[in-house]
């Protein structure tokens, strides 16, 4: 069992950094129009807003894709001199901003920088006929940043400077993604505890759980992970670092191809994972597979569930149970040419965990793909 640390809500202590959730995740990409099209067709997102030259934004094009409370922004550069172009050139399509919705962006920025965060954008008011948004940004890890977004006084689409878009016609099945459950980052060996301390100091986070290298390993490689959270479950950031092994770990492979630390995968919550995976497979999504022998053990370990075990096994969904309930999860294959970004789909039935008993099989499945790429 993973080491459960501070696995309680905030109790009565002061909430030094009030957070309302993950506002959006912004990717810097080589072609924003194509990325938005892919996510609409492959994942069932709706393109809801656009900013670019037609909205008097000269240096970029951005498309907003939404599904229930999950929101992604895909931003591409208008020229090679852009920081957006440099980011996409160095990292491939990757996450630039994990933006956090806050009640007071000016306070959030002030508190974070007082605690040692490096400011990128001071509190800035964006206004149009629909009201105003206050936005500020700090550095996080590598080239990744966190923006604080205060939008209580805004009724327009996404942000000022964006126009509403008519969603593309879509004859694919509904997927049923509800929200971003957690965002996972990879850092270099020895850097995990530094980032843990960063989230403690800057955002007032607690450590929810710690996975040791002997829990996530194979005969060849291993990783370590700690999960930081806001204390109420709205924002959860697992942090991975490689562990010493005989061969290159999955985290090392990511760091090599991403050219440094960054977001490895995003977990999206659903209320019906069986229907969601059926829909995603119909849309062409490919998933990591575990062997049939996994289900002989997991049925006994997890016990009775509301879903059909036959459906769970048919779709290769993973299951885990803890003292609070159970969860079901599945992981896509990489969605980029580089072996960097992938996605998790998760359905929580009481459990606040991360599927510790699945980590071994997941680790081995990813390692098999890594070996196929010649990177083990």
What does this structure look like?
By secondary structure, the chain is of the alpha+beta class. The protein folds into two domains: 21-164, 2,3-Dihydroxybiphenyl 1,2-Dioxygenase, domain 1; 174-372, 2,3-Dihydroxybiphenyl 1,2-Dioxygenase, domain 1. Helices cover 24% and strands 34% of the residues. The chain is built from nine helices and 18 strands. The strands form two sheets. A nine-stranded mixed sheet has the order 1-12-13-14-11-15-18-17-16, with helices on both faces. The radius of gyration is 20 Å and the shape is globular. It starts with a strand and ends with a helix.
pLDDT < 50 stretches? 1-13
Number of helices, counting only DSSP H or I runs of 4 residues or more = 9
Specify the structural class.
Answer: alpha+beta
Can you give the mean pLDDT? 90
CATH superfamily of the largest domain: 2,3-Dihydroxybiphenyl 1,2-Dioxygenase, domain 1
- Spatial strand sequence of the major β-sheet: 1-12-13-14-11-15-18-17-16
Keywords, please?
376 residues; alpha+beta; 2,3-Dihydroxybiphenyl 1,2-Dioxygenase, domain 1; 2 domains; nine-stranded mixed sheet; 9 helices; 18 strands; 24% helix; disordered N terminus
How is this structure best summarized?
The chain is of the alpha+beta class.
